[in-house]
Write a structure and sequence with these properties.
This protein is an all-beta fold. Strands 51, 52, 54, 55, 56 and 59 form a six-stranded antiparallel beta sheet that branches. Strands 6-14-13-9-10 form a five-stranded mixed beta sheet, with no helix packed on it. Strands 16-24-23-19-20 form a five-stranded mixed beta sheet, with no helix packed on it. It starts with 5 loop residues before the first strand and ends in a 5-residue tail after the last strand. It comes from Silurus meridionalis (Southern catfish).
């Protein structure tokens, strides 16, 4: 009801320009502080001119050519109005395609392009007339130009399902896709689904296709006048699903018969199976058998061989097809193989050494997974080389790896045939191959002679001696022991050297210190008697003051260095010369020049960087180095000459850049 026609004044309701739609029940509500009352009345509108305010024709009505269209003319009027139709300015007459019904409805059959235009419905009664008009727009049928095709595709691939149409330009078009009867939510499923294409294309892109994307895809095309659809079936081929119900049907000490149910083939026939096993001794699962697909009813079977006895196993099965290997089945129940006699001998059998009157035999213990049963232990057999009778010893611990036979009559360093076997509660297993092991030898009984020691520097003493030629015991090398205080020879340092060497350099010593040194021979039994000790005093330490006031001159590639002489302190070795070290950046090679002067000339290669350092040379060794000089990008073509001076931490420069490093090289 239009508020402009309604007036409420002093409790009275007035309605002007009454229409049929104003009819109905009206209620008056009166309220004060004492309460509220209601009064109702019905308004009946008995007469009204025609009006289309509630049911006008649509301004534009789009209709598919060749279809049937119905135009309703439903004015509000009392008494009932008479309805007439016209197209444009011409009145419509009934014929085989145009029908006007008593209620005013116009029906047009088999609509053509020529039927388009402005249609007006005119309604009249004795109280007046009214009209409503709308445009009828005839459109051509839409046509699908390219639709999706059914196909097979592998897991992980991506595809585009096309859906393209030709549509009358006057129509609006929209696309949607359904998957297995459900509309695809592109926002929620954006990881795999995306609409691609232009205005008249609704192509569907599916990324990284998974097995659950197999099914029927329907492209739905909606326009103002019609709805079309086209569908395709997508078959996704993937690796097989996991087999099920893996069971151990029968087990021996080395075999296990398995059965399982096949999983889904995922649209690609299963070509074979891989059986994997796991034990407490393995890291992860390991393949133990590969079998083709042999089905016995709905169950598959295979026998796994070469298992270890008395080991707890779990099994699982994986299926494969032309796409790849599928996911593994759940693991079977843990099952232990039967026990058996050992079938693996200990490895790395050897030995030797020990003390006098001992024969030491060693081996690598057999891993638990190869012990084949309970009560596992070792049998050690040995005999003097060239004899027939074996001496046997039994060790009942599976983790022991060493046996020592002691006998006072055992000759030193005598060869023995040795072998080691294994046993458990089921019996004895194989022995290892026979190896030769020597009994313990005696320590050398003769001390080296003519021991000489001379100081090389503040930290090095060279010790030499005459080798032992007539010792009845074997000599494997020599050991030099040294100490500072002859009253406390237990404060010892040691240097060992093998083979027949007769000299060794003892390093890491203190400067200007008296050392006592002795030499002894050694073998596997230990060290023999020491020689008479000799002594030597290390030289004074080298000067601690580095060369200073280093100056340089560069002409072309000729570098001239000059520095102040280093004066040694009373507690330091006298300076005998200088060592100039320079390193080329390109190949990192280090070059050294020794001179007894305080100047030197170097020829440098062009187009490279250099680091130069100077150290004093003395009987005690090399002294502290000068601050390194860095010469950057020496170029004869670009730079002619330069001079510089290094005084403590200051370096001047002219044409060639020379930097002082704050850290010593």
């Amino acid at each position: 009801m239009s508020e402009g026609r309604v007036l409420i004044e002093n409790g009275a309701l007035s309605i002007s320009s009454l229409t049929l739609s104003d009819g109905g029940m009206y209620q008056c509500v009166a309220e004060n502080k004492h309460g509220i009352i209601y009064a109702s009345a019905e308004l009946l509108v008995l007469a009204s001119p025609p009006s289309f305010s509630e049911s006008p024709l649509r301004s534009v009505l789009k209709v598919l050519a060749g279809s049937e269209v119905t135009l309703d003319c439903r004015p509000q009027a009392s008494p009932k109005a008479i309805s007439l139709w016209k197209r444009g300015s011409e009145m419509i007459q009934k014929n085989e395609r145009f029908s006007v019904f008593p209620n005013g409805t116009l029906k047009i059959a088999n609509v053509t392009k020529q039927d388009g235009g402005i249609y007006t419905c005119i309604a009249r009664n004795q109280f007046g007339s009214a009209s409503t008009a709308g445009r009828l727009l005839i459109t051509e049928p839409s046509r699908i130009t390219q639709g999706p095709s059914s196909m097979e595709i592998m897991v992980g691939e991506s595809i585009v399902l096309p859906c393209q149409v030709t549509v009358d330009p006057a129509l609006d078009v929209s696309f949607s896709w359904a998957f297995n009867g459900q509309l695809i939510d592109f926002e929620h499923d954006s990881e795999h689904f995306e609409r691609v294409g232009g205005k008249f294309a609704g192509d569907l892109m599916i990324r990284n296709i998974q097995l659950n994307h197999a099914g029927k895809y329907v492209c739905i095309i909606d326009t103002d006048v019609e709805s079309l659809s086209v569908d395709a079936v997508l078959i996704v081929e993937g690796p097989p699903g996991p087999p099920d119900s893996v069971m151990v049907e029968e087990i021996t000490d080395s075999t296990a018969q398995l059965s399982w149910s096949p999983g889904r083939d995922n649209s690609s026939p299963i070509t074979g199976y891989v059986i994997q096993a796991r034990t407490p001794f393995t890291v992860g699962w390991q393949a133990v058998d590969t079998v083709p697909e042999v089905i016995n009813g709905n169950t598959l079977t295979a026998t796994v061989v070469d298992l270890n006895a008395w080991v707890e196993y779990e099994f699982r099965v994986l299926a494969s097809n032309n796409v790849g290997m599928g996911e593994p089945s759940p693991a079977s129940a843990k099952t232990r193989t039967e026990d058996a006699m050992p079938d693996t001998a200990p490895t790395d059998v050897g030995g030797g050494g020990g003390t006098k009157s001992e024969l030491v035999i060693t081996w690598e213990p057999v891993p638990e997974e190869l012990q084949n049963g309970e009560g596992f232990g070792y049998i050690i057999a040995f005999r003097p080389m060239g004899t027939v009778t074996w001496t046997r010893a039994v060790i009942s611990s599976p983790v022991v790896s060493r046996y020592v036979f002691r006998n006072d009559t055992l000759p030193p360093f005598s060869p023995f045939d040795v072998k080691v076997g294994a046993f458990n509660n089921r019996g004895e297993g194989p022995f290892s191959s026979i190896v030769t092991v020597f009994s313990a030898e005696e320590v050398p009984s003769i001390a080296p002679e003519r021991v000489v020691a001379r100081s090389l520097s503040a930290s090095n003493i060279e010790v030499s001696w005459e080798p032992i030629h007539s010792s009845p015991e074997r000599v494997l090398g020599y050991e030099v022991v040294y100490w500072e205080d002859d009253t406390k020879p237990e404060t010892v340092g040691k240097v060992r050297i093998s083979n027949n060497s007769t000299a060794v350099n003892v390093s890491g010593l203190q400067g200007n210190t008296l050392y006592y040194l002795a030499v002894c021979a050694f073998n596997t039994a230990g060290s023999g008697p020491q020689s008479q000790p000799v002594n030597a005093t290390t030289k004074k330490p080298p000067p601690g003051q580095p060369p200073q006031n280093v100056e340089w001159t560069l002409i072309g590639s000729q570098l001239t260095l000059q520095w102040d002489p280093v004066i040694a302190l009373d507690t330091e070795s006298e300076v005998t010369g200088y060592v100039v070290m320079y390193r080329r950046h390109r190949n990192n090679d280090m070059y050294t020049i020794i001179t007894n002067k305080t100047t030197v000339e170097l020829t440098l290669s062009p187009n490279d960087n250099y680091v130069v350092q100077i150290k004093s040379l003395s009987g005690g060794g090399l002294g502290e180095g000068s601050e390194p000089i860095h010469i950057h990008q020496l170029s004869m073509g670009a730079q002619g000459s330069g001079i510089g001076r290094l005084n403590t931490l200051t370096l001047s420069r002219l044409l060639v850049t020379a930097l002082v490093a704050l850290n010593a090289s």
